[in-house]
Amino acid sequence: MLAIRGKIAKRRKKHLFLFGGIGFFILFVIVVIPMLISLFVFLAVDSNSGSYSYDIPLFGYQDAIPGPLKQIYEEVGRQYHIPWNILAAVHKIDGDYLNEMKSLFPNDVPFAQVFHEAGAKYGVDPALLKAIAKQESNFNPKELSHAGARGIMQLMPANCQEAGLDPNGDCWDPVKNIHAGAQEIARYLKKYQGNLIFALAAYNAGPARVSGMDDNPRPPEVPPIPETQDYVKKVPMYYEQFKKGMGDGKVDPAKIEEIRKKVESVASKLAEKRKKHEDSSKQGNPTACMVELKKKTVKEVKEGKAGNYGALTCALAEYFSESWSKVAQVEEQAQLYLGSVMLTGSGKPVSFGGRMLWPVQVGGGVHKQGGCVSSPYGQNRGTYYHRGVDISAPMGTPVFAAEAGKVYISKADPISLSDPIGFGWYVGIDHGNGLTTWYGHMPRKSVLVKVGDYVQKGQKIAEVGRNGMTDTQAHLHFEVHINQDRDRIDPTPFIGKGVPCNRSKFDPSYYTHPIYGVNE
Ligand SMILES: [Zn+2]
């Protein structure tokens, strides 16, 4: 805790690259040229489909898959041409997954009993305390960070003193150290009304960085410090593991082989059944399931909860003895594994299994990614952090819905000196599961949607402008929110990095004139 610099210094490895002329030439030939070629292939493929898209990385701490299992799903999935996430989902839903995980990870952590005692005393889940200890010190009672954080729970001297411990004495006692850490996280959980992420951010970066000083508070946010951002992802991941009884993460090799055989057996059954359903359609004599799927006569398919995998869906239905609710569960879980976001204290995951479109698109007919990034997410602006990405583009460049959804905001953000955001006219789209996107600074007259409208992914909703508190150039301010606008997160994983603006070579059409507070 409070050990930002120390921990970062400790973890960073120093890399030194020294290239002579020849070395650089070799590097260019074997690395840069193939990279350029693959980039062009990527661009060519993508412009054919008319949009730029990116895979969303797995955020799903809620459903974090232990590494050794992920490897099994991937390997077996490749062998049988079945998506790994389907295999993972079947494994989770079909059978006694939790007990299986317990036997896969037989060892509990060091000081396990102390974590349980401290958890009971301060009303904190012992699994959470284990997770913090794992991330902070990997259970090493002698760990000392460069910033001076001490012991298993990495208490700063001030934290030791708060708990009545001597920073150079009994604060190093593992039992007392764990109890003091438990007390600290319990205090933050109370302060942030059970919001785990804010509580963890406070434990890592100090409460002042999360919600200001007590006499000058502001709404809490995870500070855009890389270590803290990493911390609030990793600790919940460990937390989920420890909740499942995964102990120290060491795997029983015999058990892993047992699981591999089980997954292989499931995969071979599914592949066989899939082929039967596939062939039936090819031969013009489709199975009942393929007919039902096409006509959407099954309730779960009609409701969009199943049916995304064609013949494989039918194979799943057969595997689960026509229990379509099980099929729906598997497909939902599979989507969750593909791309999911969970940053909520309630532990409810937000699922988003897909890709978003870069919201500024140029070109007639076939669109492509437009504009450049003039201000990234997380930029420190003195009194606040920039919680979106600014995409600069000429006035009037079309703004597209990054994903399908329902428009739930379309209004002017009133300009005032106390409002540093000043979105101008902005639109919010609800994509379901608590996931929303916001689009700001658009001229009112350009906005094509109203509250209640359903929009398609890639539908034009407005144009780039400079409405509100904008810089010298027109730009779209784009935000991605999860947990129903409670957390504004980095849009990069959803839409990609984009191209940074080269300010010295700025297209003059991007400029308006230096002005703040336009409302047009
Ligand atoms: Zn902005």
Automatic annotation (TrEMBL):
Membrane spanning stretches: 16-45
CDD domains noted in UniProt: LT-like, M23_peptidase
Domain M23ase beta-sheet core: 385-485
Keyword Acetylation recorded: no
Entry annotated with the keyword Magnesium: no
Endpoints of the signal sequence: none
Gene Ontology molecular function: any one: metalloendopeptidase activity
Keywords recorded for this protein, A-Z: Membrane, Transmembrane, Transmembrane helix
Domain named Transglycosylase SLT: residues: 114-211
Name the record gives this protein: Peptidase family M23
Pfam families: Peptidase_M23, SLT
